Amino acid sequence: NVLRAKTYESYEATARLHIYPQLGKIKLKDLSTNRIQKLYNYKLKAGRVDGQGGLAPRSVERIHTVLHKALEQAVAERKIPHNPAKATTLPTREEKEIRALTREEQERFEASLDRERLKAAFMVGLYAGLRRGEVLGLMWDDIDFENNTIAVKRALLRVKDKETKVSELKLEPLKSKKSYRLIPCPEELITALRKHKAKQAKEKLKAGPMYQD
């Protein structure tokens, strides 16, 4: 499978910062489950690059994902007989409780947006539950004003070019099939989007050829 640019960037950084320094000089035939387990344990305890303590369990899981996939490829190419990462034990991830805004908090939040030019974007996050990149990746064609729906089709992400290492904003495909979805919208959100579209049309007219879509 072809990795998204953002995913590739994450995997590359994980390998460069957390795997190569500890395991990079060890030959494949000498890479044991015990060595890999020691790496995970160390990263959990004191593995942050800035030296300020250990990594979160989810970050250790990412290290395992990258290393496990690389070793599975080595097995497929018959460079090693089995994958030593398979028998390792990953740290238990603590599930954080998600607290929704109360009605009063929501009303205060909306009231604070009255003079905000990008009010509609914050409203999409509030009412439709989209991630930041999904909100920024929306286009007017994705919004059905007749049926009050938003189609989530892409995300705007900051990614590094593999060659130049310079980061830039790019529209990227979504991570999985489940991420592509059609979301029903309440009238309050549709109204905010209509107002934003009208405001944007005026800005476009005023700026003329200088406008960047």
What would you note in describing this structure?
The chain has 7 helices and 5 strands. With 213 residues, it is mainly α. A hairpin with a 6-residue loop joins β3 and β4. The radius of gyration is 23 Å and the shape is elongated. The model has no long low-confidence stretch (mean pLDDT 92).
Short overview:
The protein is mainly α and 213 residues long. Helix content is 46%, strand content 10%.
Derived structural class: mainly alpha
Question: C-alpha Rg, in Å?
Answer: 23 Å
Strand line-up in the sheet with most strands: 1-2-5
Q: Per the principal axes of the C-alpha atoms, what is the gross shape?
A: elongated
Q: Please report which band the strand proportion falls in: under 5%, 5-15%, 15-25%, 25-35%, 35-45% or over 45%.
A: 5-15%
Secondary structure layout:
Blueprint: H1 5-23, H2 33-46, H3 57-76, H4 103-111, H5 119-128, H6 132-136, E1 143-144, E2 149-152, E3 155-160, E4 167-172, E5 181-184, H7 187-207
Antiparallel strand pairs: 1-2, 2-5, 3-4
Q: Can you give keywords for this protein?
A:
single chain; 213 residues; mainly alpha; three-stranded antiparallel β-sheet; two-stranded antiparallel ribbon; elongated
